[in-house]
């Protein structure tokens, strides 16, 4: 078992029908337990990279290993299962299903993830207890946890999203510009909470943003433009 | 996962309810048409039973059937009393019922007959006529009413009754010189029998004797005592009497000793030399007539099937439209590890939930409507709608609606599947 959480080698990715690859990463790896900030301008292929790591899309060539699983050798179903069990994903915004309560949104994390359920059970908790614990840590009151997700503020919604990503201790947390809708004080608070919880569970954090001012908070910062050797054409950020 | 589909639907409950409603309405229509069709046919077949032949003057079989059994239309030709006597003597004839029609009581048809009518006429499953009140007519100026006639006109045993010439609702030639007295009211049958008035042939002879002395044997100078005598004679011997109560009849119903005789008798009667006659077998004629109605029936069925399809298309539209606003929801589920096939299943199960609720609501409403409308059907159409549980055909229709809905939901489900693969975790809002 290596220390690598994510390992990329000779990766290229082009959209179907496109001549030029949008991503070409000769070599990159993230070790377990690291907190890495990937910075890149809009259109530099940040989201594409994340969807490749999450196993939504497949690389055109080269390989991506997530927790020693070579994604290119896994079936669609196996990649979905790996994502469910081992990756917590936080979107920029609108992370939650508006018709469920905050707590139900968090519990949704284990819906497709037996491994996460198992880890919660091993710690002697029920899924509901684990969700409540996490939401408490992230500063949501009991009343707020039962509220419908759409009645929460954006800052609260992002914390619920973080709790959902963290529930059941997946190995990798991917955050795709999760703070861009927050003001500065909320942003720093959110990042600190995220660090704390990741450290507590031993999860690796891959944080993607265009915002260079966040760089000071991360022990490790990577510029996507330095990783990516594909010619930049200023395409839409897909 | 199913709970998630329900929660998601509940979030879009306004459009969901509308979809349910449109499916419910189309279900009501489809099942309603089917039910009316089956029950109409049943009611139709129930109007007459036990009668093996209907004989009238030369005419079409449908016309003879409709006018003699359903009181629809008038028979322009009549058969003579002599022919009636001839029919009685044919081999194998067990009983006969003479019928003379053409008069009416405030729009309700008058059937002049004799007591054989009450003794031999059968409807439904070989049921004999029963009296709700009073008894069969015993003297010539008494009458028996069908259940509906008594209800509608508010008449009871002992009340007087005026017969009008002609079958219209309003007649200028009331036979009010000769009022009849009501002697009996028949129990409800749910057939056209409920809608008619029954008087003795002699009574008809009397009133027509007043009106058209040339047609009938009863001149104005006839005494009532004479009529009584005459009726006595008639009751005692069905064979040759000196003076018939009427010269002509509209139709004669015949019961046979054995059914297989019917075919031969039809041929014999149709080739009778005395006068041109038509004999029909009511069961066959009913079927034949029903076949002519099938075009109409099919048109109704096609319309209701189209309405069901419209309802399902409504659901399809709603589901497709919802996909756009639910891309975020799909992306979230996808990020949580839901496979594209899970999203496919989510859409299909949504369609199943909508259709199942719609169909159930529709069936519920149908039974409510049937319960509420049954008295109206009975009163205006003389048509009994029984609130029986779903038939196998109706279950089949419900199953077809559900299957069609599932098949249709594959379209939005397939799109959700494709979107899941193409969009991944990013959503272009």
TrEMBL record, chain A:
Q: Which residues form the ABC transporter domain?
A: 6-238
Question: Is the keyword Oxidoreductase assigned to this protein?
Answer: no
Q: What keywords tag this UniProt record? A: ATP-binding, Nucleotide-binding, Transport
The GO terms this record gives for MF are: ATP binding; ATP hydrolysis activity; transmembrane transporter activity
Q: Which Pfam families match?
A: ABC_tran
| Entry-linked InterPro entries | AAA+_ATPase, ABC_transporter-like_ATP-bd, ABC_transpr_LolD-like, MacB-like_ATP-bd, P-loop_NTPase
Q: Which GO terms describe its cellular component?
A: plasma membrane
Name the UniProt record assigns to this protein: Methionine ABC transporter ATP-binding protein
Protein's organism? Pseudidiomarina aestuarii
From TrEMBL, chain B:
Q: Where is the MacB-like periplasmic core domain?
A: 17-204
Localisation: Cell membrane
| Main localization of the protein described in the UniProt heading | membrane
The way this protein sits in the membrane is described as:
Multi-pass membrane protein
Q: Which residues form the ABC3 transporter permease C-terminal domain?
A: 302-418
Q: Which organism is it from?
A: Pseudidiomarina aestuarii
Read off the InterPro entries from this record: ABC-4/HrtB_transporter, ABC3_permease_C, MacB_PCD
What is this protein called in UniProt? ABC transporter permease
Superkingdom of origin organism: Bacteria
The annotated region (Disordered) lies at 210-240
Q: Name one Pfam family in it.
A: FtsX
């Amino acid at each position: 078992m290596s220390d690598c959480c994510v390992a990329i080698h000779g990766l290229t990715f082009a959209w179907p029908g496109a001549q030029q690859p949008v991503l070409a990463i000769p070599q990159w790896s993230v070790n377990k337990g690291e907190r890495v900030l990937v910075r890149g301008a809009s259109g530099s292929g940040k989201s594409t990279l994340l969807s490749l790591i999450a196993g939504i899309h497949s690389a055109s060539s080269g390989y991506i290993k997530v927790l020693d699983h070579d994604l290119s050798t896994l079936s669609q179903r196996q990649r979905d299962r790996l994502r469910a069990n081992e990756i917590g994903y936080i979107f920029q915004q609108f992370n939650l299903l508006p018709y469920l309560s905050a707590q139900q949104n968090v519990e949704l994390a284990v819906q497709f993830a037996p491994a996460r359920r198992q880890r919660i059970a091993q710690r002697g908790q029920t899924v509901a207890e684990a969700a409540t614990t996490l939401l408490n840590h992230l500063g949501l009151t009991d009343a707020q946890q039962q509220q419908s997700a759409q009645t929460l503020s954006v800052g609260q919604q992002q914390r619920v999203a973080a709790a959902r990503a963290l529930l059941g201790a997946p190995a990798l947390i991917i955050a795709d510009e999760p703070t861009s809708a927050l003001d500065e004080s909320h942003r720093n608070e959110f990042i600190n909470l995220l660090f704390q919880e990741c450290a507590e569970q031993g999860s690796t954090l891959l944080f993607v943003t265009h915002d260079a001012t966040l760089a000071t908070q991360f022990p490790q910062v990577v510029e996507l433009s330095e990783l990516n050797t594909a010619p930049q054409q200023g395409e839409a950020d897909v | 996962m199913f709970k998630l589909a329900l929660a998601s639907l509940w979030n879009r409950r306004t459009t969901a309810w509308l979809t349910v409603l449109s499916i419910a309405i189309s279900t009501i229509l489809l099942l309603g048409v089917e039910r009316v069709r089956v029950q109409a046919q049943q009611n139709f077949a129930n109007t007459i039973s036990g009668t093996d032949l209907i004989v009238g003057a030369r005419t079409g079989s449908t016309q003879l059937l409709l006018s003699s059994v359903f009181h629809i239309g008038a028979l322009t030709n009549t058969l003579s009393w002599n022919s009636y006597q001839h029919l009685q003597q044919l081999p194998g004839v067990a009983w006969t019922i003479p019928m003379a029609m053409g008069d009416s009581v405030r729009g309700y048809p008058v059937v002049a007959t004799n007591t054989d009518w009450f003794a031999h006429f059968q409807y439904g499953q070989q049921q004999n006529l029963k009296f709700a009140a009073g008894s069969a007519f015993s003297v010539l100026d008494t009458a028996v009413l069908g259940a509906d006639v008594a209800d509608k006109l508010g008449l009871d045993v002992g009340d007087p009754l005026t017969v009008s010439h002609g079958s219209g609702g309003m007649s200028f030639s009331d036979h009010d010189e000769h009022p009849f007295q009501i002697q009996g009211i028949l129990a409800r049958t749910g057939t056209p029998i409920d809608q008619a008035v029954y008087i003795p042939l002699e009574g008809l002879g009397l009133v027509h004797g007043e009106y058209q002395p040339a047609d009938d044997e009863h001149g104005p100078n006839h005494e009532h005592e004479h009529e009584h005598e005459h009726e006595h004679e008639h009751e005692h011997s069905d064979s040759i009497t000196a003076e018939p109560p009427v010269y002509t009849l509209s139709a004669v119903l015949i019961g046979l000793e054995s059914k297989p005789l019917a075919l031969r008798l039809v041929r014999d009667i149709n080739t009778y030399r005395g006068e041109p006659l038509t004999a029909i077998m009511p069961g066959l004629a009913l079927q034949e007539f029903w076949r002519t109605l099938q075009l109409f029936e099919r048109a109704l069925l096609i319309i209701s099937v189209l309405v069901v399809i419209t309802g399902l298309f409504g659901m399809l539209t709603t589901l497709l439209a919802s996909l756009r606003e639910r891309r975020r929801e799909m992306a979230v589920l996808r990020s949580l590890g839901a496979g594209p096939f899970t999203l496919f299943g989510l859409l299909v199960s949504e369609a199943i939930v909508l259709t199942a609720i719609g169909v159930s609501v529709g069936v519920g409403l149908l039974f409510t409507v049937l319960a509420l409308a049954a008295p109206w059907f009975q009163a205006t159409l003389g048509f009994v709608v029984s609130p029986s549980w779903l038939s196998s055909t109706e279950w089949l229709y419900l199953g077809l609606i559900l299957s069609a809905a599932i098949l249709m939901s594959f379209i939005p489900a397939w799109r959700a599947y494709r979107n899941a693969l193409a969009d991944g975790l990013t959503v272009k809002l």
